[in-house]
Write a structure and sequence with these properties.
alpha+beta; six-stranded mixed sheet; RNA-directed DNA polymerase from mobile element jockey; RNA-directed DNA polymerase activity; nucleotidyltransferase
Length: 951
């Protein structure tokens, strides 16, 4: 009988009781298949795990076990360790305590308050590493828990042999007695060839709770037995875990389109009321889709590893029986028999897994289906570490928080200021009639397939594009004519995501708004029109790098960092301030925004339409189990989830750079950076000027209803080490936001890259390598048996972007740092081709069409410069380049195509993006001159760089 079969049989009489188990698993990843076998078959409601060996970068999606939610406390700072609880999705729970994640030679633990039908119980998992003290501190916490909660169950590996007479055992006896706990009796739980000890324990505060208990060897996992108990606590009624999905088995797209063409769309044209037009449109689409692709409920199957067949399970049972015989009689013969069977099972499982993936990833699978398969296995380009499995606070409380509130604020002065700057002649922007061509273009551009409150997906609209385009065109134009935004498209569904690892308060969540798909299409059309208008007229400040073509976080970083490098070239120190705004998008006041839009030249009907677009919005928050909160009105902020949100936010804050008299600034959406440079002995005066500008910023925020967060805003001195050493920081004035001094830091994460005070990129390189190896570790575990072309696809999508993101901003890496990154990229290539460490990798780079780090850097710099010169954007970068014939009156051969090299004093600035890009351009003038597009330049230059590799 296998482990899971024995446990299922033993626990069958206790089906309605709370059943808890503990295993010292010694690596979840190494024993995931066996864990899934137990989790899917053994009827436990909670499985406590110690020595999980998990790290924060490993997402829960790749560790799915039956119908359980993961609660993890991964050890950081040292390998090994870690504890976790797998909790059945039928149970509601709340975390009440956990140990710190960073290794500190202390026990590791998690405590949960679990709700049952008739009571609550605190369930804790504890791992005490060998020869580690401080267990009394954990029991001190247990004492506090017992004072506030009635029932307690502790499970774990305490590394204290309760069958011995050691000092650890005596300490445990004393702590158990002092807290009036009971040790559930067990036989030895940890067996080796030379010892048998009782170190895996279950402690309770009431033995009457225990209706049964036991232990079972799990030799495929570790030398520790699985220990378990059932409690005299009734499980909550299990609601059938059903998922509503579309039955697409008989869906025929052509028949669906034909049926749609035969619907009575004329009734929409005849209906005078805009909202009723939307109601008719929604009803027609939803009813038709329900007819051709009906909704039905399914019960998601949480099967164990699909490659483990019944024959393999029989082999596993034989292996377990051999181990049982060995435990009874520890002879070399029995031990060798068990080892032989264990190794056979491992090899059979490995072979079965390889065959499974070969069938799954057959060569004819489309890229889209291939990614669906990969995502289904828990491997994704999307970070899902912030996705919730349960909601620890009431959904109404969370919805109230997300909806926000409009604090009392007198906007009359700033509104008059904007309106007074507007004349009748400024009324230039009035949206012309929407065309069917624009509707089609917008339909293609909208990518999100999330269902809004109307139940219509963008995918359905795209299928019916030929039928519905005229209808949507009519509805959109009616909205613009009336100056009214459809109320049905103002209803948002909010999906909560966690901002911290274990949120317990509403402000530790952020919401993602899901809007109706037809409304997204409409918003996209208005966005394109408005964006063209403001960009063509230069109405958005050049220092705002978000939501504009040819601007990005990378260009913003280049602009700031090359300015700082230029200051260092002049032997100056830069005072840098990263300003954080509290809930910036959520505090946009509608009356001020409408005044700004008026001042920018929007016609009165267009402003009236935007007023309707912003007002009358409602939202409901959806819990992970699908429960919806009541509807809550939203009266402030930009409509999150709409493509228009970012653009109108940019317009709202566009006047902000104009308030600064001394500092330079750079913005990316609500991310603001201020910086000013000066001589090291002038830092006091520089800071006073920075503070003066920060005071002006504070006044601007007060006028516009925005709030700076002094706790999250940081300041930093940037310069070479010699100049920084000359600064006596203790005598300098503080950098102030309002009356709050900012923390002066030596490193700062700026738009995703790690800046230090000397612009040494060691921390950035370390951060990249850490991210790559964390992801590579997960891929090696999950994808090493995938076909080579799938591993290459995963590496390109999941690993290579870490090397490429904003690489032109820190292009002044030293040789040692480049070498570190190259070694890391080599390991990625080895993963793709399953190469030995001593294999020469250059030929494999060529096979993949990948460049090495130095050549990647050249390609990134060249491509960025080509875009800057071609589009003349961003201006803050384009203005740094001058062609020789623009400077000299006498024309020389090739002068028109050659960039002038600015004067500079240091090697540091010679490695700046500006100078490296100029040198690269002047070495490849003909390539820059002859290339017609960014794609052709990139492809041609990449080909040239690849040809430099000698194979």
């Amino acid at each position: 009988m296998s482990v899971s079969s024995y446990l299922t049989s033993h626990l069958a009489p206790f089906k309605k009781s709370l059943k808890i188990a503990h295993m010292n698993i010694q690596s979840v990843i190494a024993h995931l298949d066996e864990l899934r076998e137990i989790g899917c078959n053994a009827m436990f409601d909670i499985i406590a795990l110690s020595e999980t060996f998990l790290k924060p970068g490993i997402n829960n999606d790749s560790l799915l076990v039956g119908d359980y939610a993961w609660v993890r406390n991964d050890r950081t700072g040292k390998g090994g360790g870690g504890v976790a609880l797998l909790v059945s999705n039928r149970l509601k729970f709340k975390e009440i305590a956990r140990s710190q994640a960073v290794y500190s030679k202390s026990p590791e633990f998690i405590f949960l308050d679990v709700e049952c039908s008739n009571n609550h119980v605190v369930v804790g998992v504890i791992y005490r590493p060998p020869k580690i003290g401080k267990i009394h501190e954990v029991f001190g916490l247990v004492g506090n828990i017992l004072a506030n909660h009635g029932n307690l169950v502790l499970l774990g590996d305490f590394n204290s042999d309760m069958l011995s007479n050691s000092s650890y055992k005596k300490q445990m006896d004393s702590l158990i007695a002092d807290h009036d706990l009971y040790l559930v009796p067990m036989n030895p739980t940890h067996c080796t060839p030379t010892s048998s000890t009782l170190i895996d324990l279950i402690l309770v505060n009431n033995m009457n709770f225990i209706t049964t208990h036991g232990q079972q060897a799990v030799p495929a996992i570790s030398n520790h037995d699985l220990i378990f108990c059932a409690l005299n606590l009734k499980l909550p009624k299990q609601h059938e875990n059903l998922k509503v999905v579309r039955d697409k088995r008989k869906f025929d797209e052509k028949i669906f389109i034909k049926a749609a063409s035969e619907l009575d769309w004329d009734q929409i044209y005849m209906e005078p009321d805009l909202d009723k037009k939307i109601e008719i449109f929604t009803t027609l689409i939803v009813n038709l889709y329900n007819e051709h692709c009906p909704l039905h409920k399914i019960k998601p199957k949480h099967l164990p590893a699909p490659w483990i067949s019944d024959d393999i399970r029989k082999m596993m049972a034989t292996r377990d029986l051999a181990y049982k015989e060995y435990r009874k009689c520890k002879t070399p013969v029995n031990h060798n028999k068990y080892k032989k069977l264990r190794n056979q099972v491992k090899q059979v499982i490995r072979n079965a897994k390889t065959r499974h993936f070969k069938v799954l990833f057959r060569s004819k699978v489309s890229p889209r289906d291939l990614w669906n398969i990969v995502n289904g296995l828990g491997i994704s380009t999307k970070d899902k570490s912030n996705v919730l499995s349960t909601l620890p606070i009431p959904i109404e409380e969370l919805n109230e928080h997300f909806a926000g509130f409009a604090p009392a604020h007198d906007s009359s002065v700033v509104i008059r200021k904007y309106l007074s700057a507007c004349t009748a002649d400024d009324k230039e922007f009035s949206l012309s009639r929407v065309t069917e061509k624009q509707v089609r273009e917008a339909l293609v551009m909208v990518k999100s397939n999330s269902l809004g409150s109307d139940g219509i997906s963008i995918q359905v609209l795209q299928i019916l594009v030929d039928v519905i385009t005229p209808v949507l065109c009519h509805i959109f134009n009616k909205s613009l004519e009336c100056g009214i935004y459809p109320s049905h498209w103002k209803q948002a569904i909010v999906m909560p995501l966690k901002k911290v690892e274990n949120p317990t308060r509403a402000n530790e969540f952020r919401g993602i708004n899901i809007l109706c798909a037809p409304g997204k299409v409409f918003d996209k059309i208005v966005y394109m029109k408005l964006n063209h208008y403001v960009c063509e007229r230069g109405l958005i400040n050049d220092k705002q790098s978000a939501y504009k073509s040819h601007y990005s976080t990378e260009t913003a970083l280049i602009g700031v960092l090359d300015s700082v490098r230029s200051a260092m070239d002049r032997r100056e120190v830069t005072v840098f301030v990263g300003v954080d705004f509290s809930r910036a998008f959520d505090l946009i006041r509608h009356d001020v925004l409408l005044a700004i839009l008026t001042s920018l030249g929007l016609s009165e009907p267009m402003v009236r339409w935007f007023s309707s677009y912003l007002s009358g919005r409602n939202q409901r928050t959806r819990a992970p189990d699908g429960t919806l909160s009541s509807s809550k009105s939203v009266t402030i902020g930009t409509p999150q989830g709409s493509v228009l949100s970012g653009l109108i936010f940019s317009l709202f804050v566009d006047s902000l750079p104009g308030v600064f008299e001394h500092c330079s600034c750079m913005m990316y959406a609500d991310d603001l950076q201020l910086y000013m440079s000066g001589k090291a002995d002038e830092m006091g005066e520089v800071i006073r000027k920075v503070n003066a500008d920060l005071a002006r910023l504070d006044e601007w925020c007060s006028d516009h209803g925005m709030v700076m967060n002094a706790l999250k805003s940081k300041a930093m001195f940037i310069g070479n080490s010699k100049l920084l050493a000359k600064i006596n920081r203790s005598t300098l004035p503080q950098v102030l936001v309002g009356n709050n001094p900012l923390e002066i830091v030596r490193e700062f994460k700026n738009l995703g890259i790690m800046m230090t005070e000397t612009l040494n990129w060691e921390m950035q390189v370390s951060d990249i390598r850490k991210k790559v190896y964390r992801s590579l570790y997960q891929l090696r575990r999950m994808a090493i048996d995938f076909p080579q072309h799938v591993r290459a696809m995963l590496a390109q999508a999941l690993l290579v972007p870490f090397f490429d993101y904003a690489s032109t901003a820190y292009c002044d890496l030293n040789a040692e740092q480049i070498d570190k990154l190259q070694k890391t990229l080599n390991d990625v290539v080895r993963f793709v081709f399953r190469l030995r460490l001593d294999t020469h990798v250059t030929p494999y780079f060529v096979k993949l069409g990948w460049l090495k780090i130095r050549e990647r850097k050249k390609l990134a710099i060249g491509t960025m410069l080509f875009k800057i010169l071609k589009f003349h954007k961003p201006l803050y970068l384009y203005d740094q380049y001058k062609f020789l014939n623009d400077i000299h009156s006498v024309s020389t051969r090739n002068a028109g195509s050659t960039l002038s090299i600015p004067k500079h004093n240091t090697v540091l600035f010679s490695k700046s993006f500006t100078l490296q890009s100029i040198s690269l351009h002047n070495e490849n003038v003909h390539l820059f001159d002859l290339s017609k597009s960014v794609i052709s330049f990139r492809n041609d230059y990449k080909k040239i760089l690849l040809e430099t590799y000698c194979i």
